[in-house]
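Action item from last meeting closed. Structure (486 res):
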């Protein structure tokens, strides 16, 4: 096994920092290579947040950790067998999301759910004569026992979105297999979109959008390798963390995850780290058959409950602080957020109630409520942000900073920036949070991220149209039309 394994169990923040310093990924930002991300803007705040999340799990061990092999490990790696297991997992996922108010869309728990499902259903990876089940199990144990963080990629860049990667004008753009040896495979090309590129490991998962052709097989693979692997490059977008004070930028200075395009420059992948190789059938069924899609959607619903709760709390504080309680249109806005929160909670509860054990013996949350949740939330979230904008009005546009409150005009600011129920300092703190949640670059990225969290929303609608049977409802209406009018 080519694994550098210490088997620490659940990590603490100092473990995260130490490992990242020992094995830094090849990050590129604004045309320059970042040699020490732990102390370099714009990564240092994000890395501090990630390390704090690992400390946070030790502050709530009864909820977030479990015993495994004589050590504590993250409950995000659990494999539920009973409904009580699933509900316990849900509590852990909600507690984890509360650390960031649901703003970390790719916190480690997200991909932990994937590898846990793959391991529980490892026999699937031997279908069709393949022999990767032991790799899946070993990688899961390695990541779990060392509590490693992961980023992932599964989208092929395409000049023409209507064609498979092998039928593009330049078929070498998408990541593909270029060579195979007795010890492993070599990958060249690019993949989208790695969020949290300073994680420990990169999970390269298959794209399901490929034809059943021999030419597609060079693009049909899955593996997990260290982000520090030779030849691996992460081209990062411009940061929404400006490196400024947390009082002025309460969200963006903490929860910038960073997104990157991954470039594979003759990257070597040992066979021990391969999950799938040139098998289109496995690629197409990779997520659904293993229950991974349902489990990561369950984690996302838990995250969205927390995120919606945050906006409900924020809006309620704005209403109270500005004495807006008497306006009916304000009541309606608050009610929209409350109903959205109850909707997400109901989807979670329904998925737990309808959970079924799959053929591999793992309990999988009911898919239909989760599918409905991931369809609806990208439509709910922009409206949540819009409500903050509407209630904040011009108060979100002309906001002084902490430096202004400490400067020579502080008495003017104390007088002119107070609200009906808040002193100027408290109002400014609240409204800077509202601004960072609704109008900043961080807020805009959050909206775009939620819109496309599970891919193209139009394609998602088409999948629902094709796959969800309405025959029973149609039958009832047909029977109604045929019966005699009483």
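Sequence:
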């Amino acid at each position: 096994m080519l694994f550098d394994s210490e088997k620490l169990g659940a990590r603490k923040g100092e473990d995260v920092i130490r490992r990242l310093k020992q094995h830094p990924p090849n990050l590129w930002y604004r045309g320059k290579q970042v040699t020490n991300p732990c102390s370099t803007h714009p990564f240092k705040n994000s890395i501090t947040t990630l390390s704090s999340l690992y400390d946070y799990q030790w502050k709530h061990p009864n909820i977030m950790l479990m015993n495994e092999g004589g050590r504590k490990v993250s409950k995000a790696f659990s494999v539920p067998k009973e409904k009580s297991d699933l509900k316990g997992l849900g509590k852990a996922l909600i507690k984890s999301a509360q650390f960031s108010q649901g703003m970390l869309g790719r916190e480690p728990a997200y991909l932990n759910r994937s590898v846990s499902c793959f391991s529980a259903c490892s026999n699937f990876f031997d279908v069709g004569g393949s022999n990767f089940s032991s790799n899946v199990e070993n990688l899961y144990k390695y990541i779990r026992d060392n509590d490693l963080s992961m980023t992932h990629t599964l989208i092929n860049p395409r000049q023409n979105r209507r064609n498979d990667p092998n039928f593009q004008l330049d078929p070498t753009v998408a990541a593909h297999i270029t060579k195979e040896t007795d010890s492993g495979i070599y990958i060249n090309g690019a993949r989208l979109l790695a969020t949290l590129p300073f994680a420990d490991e990169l999970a390269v998962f298959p794209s399901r959008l490929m034809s059943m052709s021999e030419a597609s097989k060079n693009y049909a693979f899955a593996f997990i390798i260290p982000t520090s692997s030779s030849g691996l490059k992460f081209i990062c977008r411009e940061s929404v963390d400006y490196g400024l004070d947390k009082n002025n930028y309460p969200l963006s200075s903490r929860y910038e995850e960073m997104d990157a395009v991954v470039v594979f420059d003759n990257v070597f992948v040992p066979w021990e780290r391969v999950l799938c190789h040139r098998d289109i059938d496995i690629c197409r069924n990779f997520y659904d058959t293993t229950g991974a899609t349902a489990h990561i959607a369950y984690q996302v619903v838990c995250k969205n409950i927390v995120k919606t709760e945050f906006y409900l709390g924020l809006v309620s504080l704005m209403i109270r602080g500005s004495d807006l309680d008497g306006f009916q249109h304000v009541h309606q806005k608050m009610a929209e957020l409350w109903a959205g929160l109850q909707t997400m909670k109901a989807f979670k509860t329904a998925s737990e109630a309808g959970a079924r054990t799959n053929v591999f013996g793992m309990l999988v949350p009911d898919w239909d409520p989760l599918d409905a949740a991931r369809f609806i939330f990208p439509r709910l979230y922009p409206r949540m942000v819009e409500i903050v904008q509407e209630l904040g009005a011009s108060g979100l546009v002309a906001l002084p900073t902490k430096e202004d409150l400490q400067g020579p005009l502080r008495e003017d600011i104390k007088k002119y920036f107070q609200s009906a129920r808040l002193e100027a300092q408290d109002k400014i703190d609240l409204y800077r949070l509202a601004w960072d949640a609704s109008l900043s670059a961080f807020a805009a990225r959050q909206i775009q991220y939620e819109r496309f969290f599970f891919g193209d929303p139009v394609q998602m609608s088409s999948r629902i149209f094709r796959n969800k049977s309405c025959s029973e409802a149609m039958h009832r209406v047909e029977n109604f039309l045929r019966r005699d009018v009483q």
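Note appended to the action item: Residues 31 and 235 are 9 Å apart (CA to CA).
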